[in-house]
Design goal:
Blueprint: H1 2-26, E1 27-32, H2 39-47, E2 55-64, E3 69-77, E4 80-87, E5 92-93
Antiparallel strand pairs: 1-2, 2-3, 3-4, 4-5
Length: about 100
């Protein structure tokens, strides 16, 4: 009985890892330094009053299974996380 309880977390972890693998096969996600963002994305950020003065905490380049690339950027908004997505041309992607 103790063995079964101890094995349960391992099975859940294995299932979670398998789901993560399936998601990652559909997208290629690369963490970037904010300085590596394309000029159009940097310009879009600099000219957007709502985020221009915020610090970037994370930046990701994401390419989907069709080869389309977008950028997911996390900002620190006075301790709150703010996430925006932009296409390669700096146009904000709204969901």
């Amino acid at each position: 009985m103790v063995f079964a309880l101890a094995a349960s977390p391992m099975m859940v972890n294995a299932q979670t890892q398998e789901i993560e693998k399936m998601v990652m096969t559909n997208q290629d996600k690369v963490k970037l330094d904010p300085e590596q963002l394309p000029p159009a994305v940097k310009t879009a950020i600099a000219t957007d009053e709502t985020i221009a003065d915020l610090s970037i905490t994370e930046a990701w380049q994401i390419t989907d299974e069709k080869g389309a690339t977008h950028f997911k950027i996390k900002f620190d908004n006075a301790g709150e996380e703010l996430i925006k997505k932009f296409d390669i041309n700096g146009k904000e992607i709204k969901e």
